[in-house]
Specification:
Elements: H1 6-13, E1 22-29, E2 33-35, E3 38-41, H2 46-54, E4 65-68, E5 76-79, E6 89-98, H3 100-111, E7 122-130, E8 141-148, H4 154-165, H5 185-212, H6 223-242, E9 258-266, H7 267-276, H8 281-299, E10 307-314, E11 327-334, H9 341-357, H10 360-370, H11 376-389, E12 394-400, E13 407-408, E14 411-419, E15 428-435, E16 438-446, H12 453-467, H13 482-496
Helix pairs in contact: 5-6, 5-10, 6-10, 8-9, 8-12, 12-13
Length: about 500
């Protein structure tokens, strides 16, 4: 049986009317391309896109499965007997040629639509009618998509993108798909009992493995000592996330309507600037977010010294392509009260290094696996209690994408902008994907709480620009730095359009 894990199901348990937990993406394609020297035209038809995807779905079988919740036993994924790719792939044409602003608006409206649970939990829209040209921010057409977080995490989404939009192995011919019969009630119940029993028996081993890695603890240690150590370190990890954090106006939910914004910076420039300072690309991203939030919060009359970012961390083994969630989380304090760019990056670098060496991500992931031993009510109680206990301002996610250019039906993929879902009580998320030499960012916001998400995206680009400059001394208090002046000029130009 194809069973979701407790973490997969947590993303269903934590949903609210204001916070549907599906991930999203905006893919921008070139309007004209050439395949083997032949002009293949502009936007493909919806029918062509459906045929293309349908021919490749054998590689991602869960995209043809829906979630079944039997009266007895836990949920499982089963083939949808009525699956039709036409129920998942649609076309949208803009009334007039539009640029970046129109794409953001229509994409936000599309990903705000709920996903029906009686079908496989994904959907894509082919968006036509985009203006071409450097200033439009969009060329040719776009594909806006969404999939429930119970189905897929960020790393798995990249694997799906490679499968659906990369080159296809012509030798791997797909058979005609025939849905398998769903397991009966008795089989589902037996599988649930077996899964929970194995999870309960493996819980101590999972947690111990996260704590000690390959090195086994002293054989002389009693099981009681091991249990005490495990519980103490588990409490330490959870306490690290549950420490009080400064509240801001961004910890608020009003509507399921999402506003999106996009940013794009040079991946190589950001990585090189980080290496000069002993920082990773993740450190650079978090530092840029801290610099950006400083301005965004001050526009709201708020001046906290720090805010906490929740950072998803992949715990996949090697090139594991399986769908579902293989993630844990780190809490990183962002120094939004610090005005100096160099100091911000230095603080971020030290804090992320400390979080990684603490081993908390592996421990929390192991504890999440142990939740598979719980029945549904207990699992939901744990998920909701954990969300209430862990204060944070926003989620910041970074996923390594394909380094080479992908294409769809001969059209080159120009840009990939992710959408990280908003948990209830939060109004802003930031996701990043590296693709073909660029670091491409997607911002998602509660449309009624964060009305300046496009300005935040422009400030994020300016923050990266500042971080990529050679190291320099701190600016005089009150001085307008060059990167801030450029950000102000960008906002002024946008306001005058």
């Amino acid at each position: 049986m194809d069973r979701p894990t407790a973490l997969d199901l947590a993303f269903l348990d934590l949903e609210t009317p204001q916070a549907p937990l599906h991930v999203g993406w905006t893919l921008r394609f070139g309007g004209v391309a050439h395949a083997q020297g032949r002009d293949v035209g502009g936007t493909p038809t919806v029918a062509a896109l459906r045929r293309h995807l349908d021919a490749r779905l054998h590689a991602v079988p869960r995209f043809r499965r829906r979630l079944v919740r039997p009266a007895l036993g836990g949920p499982f994924w089963a083939d949808d007997p009525g699956f039709d790719v036409a129920h998942h792939v649609f076309g949208v044409t803009l009334a007039a040629p539009g640029g970046a602003a129109e794409l953001r608006e229509v994409a936000g409206a599309l990903v705000s639509q709920p996903l029906p649970e009686d079908r496989p939990l994904w959907r894509m829209y082919l968006v036509d009618g985009l203006a071409e040209g450097e200033d439009s921010g969009a060329c040719g057409f776009a594909i806006v998509g969404q999939a429930h977080h119970a189905l897929i995490d960020g790393v798995a989404a990249i694997a799906v993108a490679r499968l659906l939009f990369g080159r296809q192995d012509e030798s791997a011919a797909a058979d005609v798909w025939i849905p398998s019969a769903a397991p009966g009630a008795g089989e589902a119940l037996r599988a649930t009992i077996g899964t929970r029993a194995r999870a309960a028996g493996a819980a101590a081993r999972e947690v111990a493995g996260a704590l000690w890695g390959e090195a086994a603890p002293d054989a002389a240690a009693s099981s009681g000592d091991r249990a005490t150590t495990v519980l103490r370190d588990a409490a330490r990890a959870l306490d690290g996330l549950a420490r009080p954090a400064a509240p801001t106006s961004l910890e608020h939910s009003l509507t399921p309507r999402r506003a999106l914004a996009y940013a794009d910076v040079s991946f190589e420039a950001a990585r090189a600037a980080g290496r000069r300072r002993g920082a990773t690309i993740n450190d650079m991203l978090l530092a840029a977010v801290a610099i950006t939030l400083r301005g965004a919060l001050r526009r709201r009359g708020e001046a906290p010294e720090t805010v906490r970012a929740l950072v998803p961390v992949s715990v996949r083994a090697g090139e594991d392509p399986a769908l579902g969630n293989r993630i844990s989380f780190l809490g990183v304090e962002l120094p939004v009260g610090e005005p100096d760019v160099e100091r911000v990056l230095k603080l971020i670098r030290a804090r992320t290094a400390a979080a990684k060496t603490g081993g908390d991500a592996g421990l929390l992931e192991a504890l999440g696996r142990a939740a598979d031993a719980l029945p549904g009510p207990g699992r939901r109680l744990v998920a909701r209690s954990a969300l209430r206990a862990v204060p944070f301002t926003l989620v910041v996610s970074n996923v390594p994408g394909p380094p080479t250019e992908l294409s769809l039906l001969g059209r080159p993929l120009l840009g990939v902008h992710p959408m990280v879902p908003l948990l209830h009580g939060h109004a802003l998320t930031i996701g990043a994907v590296s693709y073909a030499g660029r670091l491409q960012l997607g911002l998602a916001a509660d449309a009624e709480v964060v009305e300046d998400v496009a300005a935040i995206a422009r400030d994020l680009e300016a923050a990266f620009e500042a971080l990529c400059q050679p190291a320099r001394t701190a600016a005089r208090p009150g001085a307008v730095t060059p990167w801030r002046a450029r950000a102000q000029a960008r906002r002024q130009r946008a306001a005058n359009r």
